[in-house]
Every structure is written in structure tokens, then in C-alpha cells.
């Protein structure tokens, strides 16, 4: 090797060492503590508190030093179950500081499900809210693993310590850790929100955190002058990273905390705090629109409203643009890969109903769907908007391409650099994706494939329908029959009107129309706002057996 090549290699090694040590999420946060120390980082309207970056850092330091005094070391898991709240943010940043692993879990989990998460990740610390104390205590009795420290947000009992007491005596100086940060360290572990079977732990590295933050910063775009409010749960990847604590603290912006969504309060906060970006699922936009039409608020500070979790229908999109803001965004992705396609204001309303095109650093394809095998990444479905295949995602910046402690599911999910989502979709000549449903939600009736989302789109276009979910019930002759649950927008709506509307719709083949209906007060949704079709299928079977469905 020549002398010049030797020098170059040495220089590149220097770059590599600095890059891997310094290009971490926590380094970005600390840059903002330095340059924006007196700027507001976080506002909690519920508790009438706010924190500058310097104040946030001091509280995080107290927590970090308390955790170190408890013997928490690099790679130890800190699990917490809570609504969006200041303590969630403190824990998130503190785990980064001391090289521990954040593990926020769904606050709706049962005691048995909490215990499963505890035994899978074996946290050394478990933090929770006072309201969940009974479930957590039951979970700890079930779980084989016992965390060494239990922290409650609120009043403590004899078996746990309150958050305030836990940090009260600790110094607010920078914690002294025995190891360097590294971009490849696991910093966060999220559990997929499946409702049956074992949940899957999704590990996220520090470089995944940084590049996920960059993705959001680029696509909005965001700056340190922005003020955001993510109304979705922070334990979800979209909640934490779509203008939640991760990108906002990384860019030096301000977050306004909303523990539980309320449309009137949300609009009040936009006006009061000058919020520039709001994030929520499509039902959030619908409720915001209704509330804004009922009582006008000053929304002039808004640069955009970002939605995710399900497609935006064209009529709804136009209404949101008229009433709330012309700048509507829509993202699609997974827990494993964050978001990977995006619709921006210039795409809407023309491309409403689609999930958009690939994000800057991602590649999203639709490949053929086979009943007995996985398609190769280059075995693409036709780009005609008609042929339905499986959506696959290459997201090398935002995914660790594995599950924690689950080799079998890792092998099933990830293949040749792609995550196979299990979502069914079509794409067009411009590579815009349209999601049609899940493989396991697909209805097969008389040998025909029926996608619930298509039927839902038709039903939702009826002005007397406020919301709906479509599933199926078993049938001896046809295999399955399409079944629809309807929330009325007009109390005069009848089953016969629904039947006639579907028969006359040019967008729905006759074999796809519902054969069973039931009116309900509200569509069930999971914590992230998605319609749980598997839960609806069980509900439909129970209603069929009890004679509660209307047969057309």
C-alpha cells in the first residue's frame, strides 16, 4: 500500500471513529441544550408546566443519576407504560444518556400481556402511572422476571417509589458513564401492537433514531422554530417520531403534550401556543373539522396537519383542507420501518386514497402475492392500479432489520433487504401505492378475493354513514360473507338504504357488497387509531351466532 493510501485510510478511520461515537441521537439533543438552553423544549398544559432545554436537561440528569445509582448499565432495559406525559419524555432522554434501552409499551395492555413483555425484555426498571397500578401489580405477580426498580407517576405504594421521590435527592449534573455512546447501540425497543399471540419487539438503534428524525425534518420540513403536538400515543413509532419527542428534541423545537385527544382542547392549544404542526389519525382530523365548524378558532399558525394509520378519502381530504389547513400530509409505514411513503400538500386531493410514493431514503414496491410462497423482490405486480400484491419496504436508514429475541419472525419478515409487510396493495406507473388491506383480513367469498378497505371506501362515500368497518362471517355455501358495521351520520339511515346504495354503486361489484349489517355507536379502534379487523371478525361471529346481524 502506498504512503498516500495509508494516510487516507488513517484519515478515514478517524472519520469512522468520530462518526460512530458522535453521530448519535443524544449528541443532537445535547447540541440543542447548548445552543437553545433558554428556549422552551416542552409544554404540559395539563399540569401548567413548561421546560426550557436547560431545565429539561437538568431533570433528565437527576433521573439519569438516580438510575446509575441503582446500578442501571449499558444495554439494560427501562420499560414504561404511560400516556403522553412529561415523565415519558424524561425517561426517553435519560435512557439515551446512560446507554440504556427505552421500552415504552401500550398503556391498554392487560396484566397478562404486560407480563409477557416483562419476561421477553427483562427490564431492570418498570415505570407506570398510578391509574395502572392494579394491572401492573398483577402483571408482576404473573411475570417470572422481577424488575429491580418500580417507579410510579403519582402516589406511591409500599412496593414502588414515586417518580418525584426517586429523583429528588439526585444531582442535576451530567451523569458519568463508563462507556462511550455508539450509533449502533440499541436505544429503543417497541412492541408491535398485535392483538393476538406474542408481540414482537422491534429494536431501534441510535442511528435509526437520528435518520428517522432526519426523515421527518426533511419531509415536513421542521426547524427549531416549530411547535408540534402529536395526538397519537408516544409508545407507537409514529407517536414518538412523527413530530414527537424524537425529532423535535433533535431539531431543537417545542412539543406540546396531549395525553388524550380532545378536539376542542386541541384547537384551543393550536390557538394558544401557536402550534405549527399537529399529528393525528384520520378520525382526529374528522373530529377537529367538526369542532372547528362548531366554534371557529384561529388556526393561522398551522403549517400542516399530518395523518397516518389509514388512507385519506378524497372528499374528506377536501373538507379538511377547507376547514383546517390546506397543508395536509399523509404517511404510511410500519413499526419496523417507521413511515415509508408520504403524501404532501401538492399531492392532495388528487392522490387522496393512495399512500403516496416512497420517502426520500426508502424504496417501496408491490410484488405478487402467492398463497404458498413469498415473491422475490423483483417479482413485481403490474403498475396498473389494479393487480393486488404484497407491499414490501426497503428502509435501510430507519430499520434494524430484525426482531428482538425472535429469529423465526425475523426470518419471516425480512428478506433480501426488504421488510415484507403483509399489507396488500396496488401501485401505478408513478410508483404511488394504494393499500387494500391485510393478507389475513382478505375475505374469500365464492372463490373471489374481497378487500375490506374497498367496501369501506364505498360505504363511507354515503353521506348518511359516519364510519364503518367491514369484515366477514363464515358461510357454508360461499365460504365467507361480507359483513359491515355502520355508524350513522343520519339517524334516518336504514339497512335497505345501505343495500340499495351498494347495489347501485359503480365502484362495487355485486359479489363484494355486504350481506350482513349492524348499526353500532362507534367503530372499535386500537390505541394508534387503526381499525382492528381481526377483532371485528370475532365480533361478527359472535353477533351471527346470537342473531344480531341484519341479513340482506
- Count every helix, treating DSSP H or I runs of 4 or more residues as helices: 17
Distance between the termini: 80 Å
Task: Give the overall shape, derived from the CA principal axes.
Answer: globular
Integer count of domains: 3
Instruction: Give the tally of β-strands.
Output: 27
The strand line-up of the biggest sheet is: 2-1-11-10-12-13-14-15-16
The major pleated sheet works out as: 9 strands, mixed
CATH architecture of the largest domain: 3-Layer(aba) Sandwich
What is the typical, i.e. mean, pLDDT?
Answer: 94
Class from secondary-structure proportions: alpha/beta
Q: Percent range for helical residues?
A: 25-40%
Radius of gyration, rounded? 24 Å
CATH class of the largest domain: Alpha Beta
Q: What is the H level of CATH, i.e. the homologous superfamily of the largest domain?
A: ANL, N-terminal domain
Share in β-strands: 15-25%
CATH topology of the largest domain: Rossmann fold
Unreliable spans: none
Short description:
The protein is α/β, with parallel strands linked by helices.
Write out key terms for the chains shown.
alpha/beta; Rossmann fold; five-stranded parallel β-sheet; GMP Synthetase, Chain A, domain 3; 3 domains; 552 residues
Describe this structure in words.
By secondary structure, the protein is of the alpha/beta class. It has three domains: 24-217, 3-Layer(aba) Sandwich (Rossmann fold); 261-439, Rossmann fold; 449-551, GMP Synthetase, Chain A, domain 3 (2-Layer Sandwich). Strands 2-1-11-10-12-13-14-15-16 form a nine-stranded mixed β-sheet, sandwiched between helices. Strands 4-3-5-6-7 form a five-stranded parallel β-sheet. Strands 17, 18, 19, 20 and 21 form a five-stranded antiparallel β-sheet that branches. Helix 8 packs across helix 10 (245-251) and helix 11 (263-273) packs across helix 12 (282-294). The termini are far apart.
